Amino acid sequence: xxxxxxxxxxxxxxxxxxxxxxxxxxxxxxxxxxxxxxxxxxxxxxxxxxxxxxxxxxxxxxxxxxxxxxxxxxxxxxxxxxxxxxxxxxxxxxxxxxxxxxxxxxxxxxxxxxxxxxxxxxxxxxxxxxxxxxxxxxxxxxxxxxxxxxxxxxxxxxxxxxxxxxxxxxxxxxxxxxxxxxxxxxxxxxxxxxxxxxxxxxxxxxxxxxxxxxxxxxxxxxxxxxxxxxxxxxxxxxxxxxxxxxxxxxxxxxxxxxxxxxxxxxxxxxxxxxxxxxxxxxxxxxxxxxxxxxxxxxxxxxxxxxxxxxxxxxxxxxxxxxxxxxxxxxxxxxxxxxxxxxxxxxxxxxxxxxxxxxxxxxxxxxxxxxxxxxxxxxxxxxxxxxxxxxxxxxxxxxxxxxxxxxxxxxxxxxxxxxxxxxxxxxxxxxxxxxxxxxxxxxxxxxxxxxxxxxxxxxxxxxxxxxxxxxxxxxxxxxxxxxxxxxxxxxxxxxxxxxxxxxxxxxxxxxxxxxxxxxxxxxxxxxxxxxxxxxxxxxxxxxxxxxxxxxxxxxxxxxxxxxxxxxxxxxxxxxxxxxxxxxxxxxxxxxxxxxxxxxxxxxxxxxxxxxxxxxxxxxxxxxxxxxxxxxxxxxxxxxxxxxxxxxxxxxxxxxxxxxxxxxxxxxxxxxxxxxxxxxxxxxxxxxxxxxxxxxxxxxxxxxxxxxxxxxxxxxxxxxxxxxxxxxxxxxxxxxxxxxxxxxxxxxxxxxxxxxxxxxxxxxxxxxxxxxxxxxxxxxxxxxxxxxxxxxxxxxxxxxxxxxxxxxxxxxxxxxxxxxxxxxxxxxxxxxxxxxxxxxxxxxxxxxxxxxxxxxxxxxxxxxxxxxxxxxxxxxxxxx
Length: 878
Known about the structure:
The protein is 22% helix and 28% strand. By secondary structure, the protein is an alpha+beta fold.
């Protein structure tokens, strides 16, 4: 949805307001019957019915682009000459001046009656209140064209026969074999483009058969003329004769000529004059100003564009633009609308809930864009890339002109439910309507990058080179980056809801469960598991994306490491800069093997739900690893969405991108990662004093550390997703590839000493005890846990601890046999060499011990330590 477009000066436009869903077709028909006796002037034509009667030069309702559901204020304005009185019905009654404001809450037809003594003149405009859901027929229902494509794929018919049959189906020609009888509407414009482009290469017999379909319907030798009452005889195709065409209504300031089927009821004719006429007037003004071109008509005057409205139950086309001959300025063409598909079918099938005025107006805007697009010069107007540009742009144009009707929503799903197909895909397995869904790309570009005028630039540059490279040129060479943003926007849920904001579109890739893969990260009772985040074969196609939704329902999962195997060549090994020896496959190792161009084209985006809130998207393209910790609220995740994107568009290099090494994956573990608390105890036995061998004594020192607390600062999600080393204390990093551990700093604790001295000199024997409350100014301490080491390595689920005072600690000792006093002491608690005792299987308990020589070459001088630590979020042992 966008703000209402500016009304072109002098054009007669109508406001399309939102119509309540409760408005039924029967109500619309009553409104049309009431209009039947009225003369309308959608382009300001004089509708005088008697000589000397007033002249209505203009009667308009604005704003022209429509209002949101529920309605609102509309402004009626008019220019009338020679009138003694003017009244507007309903509601307003007698009016003065040239303008009046009123409020509408549902579809309303306004009739202006100008009177004098010699007679009266009437003109009508219609304002609609659009439904809260897009009304209309099922534009994607299975059609005869779909049946024909299936037959062509099976080899039952050839390409020329398929083209002939589709032309027959669009126009309701009885030469179409009865087995192709699907009821869905056919998108006729690309079929007519194919016929125009391929016509010269057909056989003479097929040319004779197809030529009438390239002629304007009001010519006797056209497909319509040969079956109408004005022809000398009906065609021999056993079709019922068409009624002749009538009317010659000029709209859009005389730039569009409107004709319709003579057999229409007065209500239907009024519908054509009022709704279709106003839609042509408004759409013509908006689109020609936007694109800087006018459509070229194929009638006597190429500056007057012909539009024909028929009503044929056998014709499957809803509306189609027919290019008929090529000129130096582009293709001449005409537009045909099938009223049967727009309104009469509604009466036959009331359950469809169609409000035909909305559908007719939207189709007019869509097809009129095709007519303007036909004036651009392409070597082959039926080339896949040109058809994609046509249909995606024309669908965007329907929203541009009528932002409140939302008929483009019918096609969004054709792109969103198969996001792994290229944006401009033309493969036989891809629905034709996928091209229409491409309007979402244009919606993003025009809303976010350069405004509606960007559409004109796309088309003008496409005359000079292939379509997609042309778009890249207009986007200053940034199509891969833009496509990545479009792919994220297409998820349309969580933190990215731009389609909802711009177009009231609630649908997204997220609403199509078949469009993405769901992975549940669970341990299944195991302490550690490797869980792939799969990139489906054969890889991510060019200008496409794959989506993987990650759920976390297992509360035993505490630490997580995502390894980016999409943007990096992921393997297992040992980074060269580790200072601790490990086995050959201890870690995930990510090698940067992609070139700069490839890194630009191949991108990964991440959406994160944490603490009930969504954030992102985050760019992981140059992030090899991301760790999450479920123990800390700031680092925990409830749901993730990975979007793997291929932005390559160069035709010669288009190929799916798949992992060069291992698949992207999660290493999930039950190992705690937030904080630890606990106790430790150590003892040592002294030895003879150096330099005095005659003096012998023994010394036993016992140290008890209590109330130990190891913690780390939580990392904000915005920093966490930048990858390692943001999640580590940089001083203690082992690897620039992946942080093998979480590191925790000791923030507090208490030290208690007991000492016993037994000396050969009784005067020097004593025993005593003391205690010191420790803080970070008195001690250092770190605890590291190897959460992200792969199984089978000695450090798997291991840990590292190192605690000691920063300076000598003093405490008092009282002796019975000798003098007491102040003692000074150091201690060192820790794991040494490659000793990394494993964390218990619950992931939340550490029961460690160590023993070592305190000084090389001195015997009987041992340090023995034990420590019991518990995850802070678990119940701690005393």
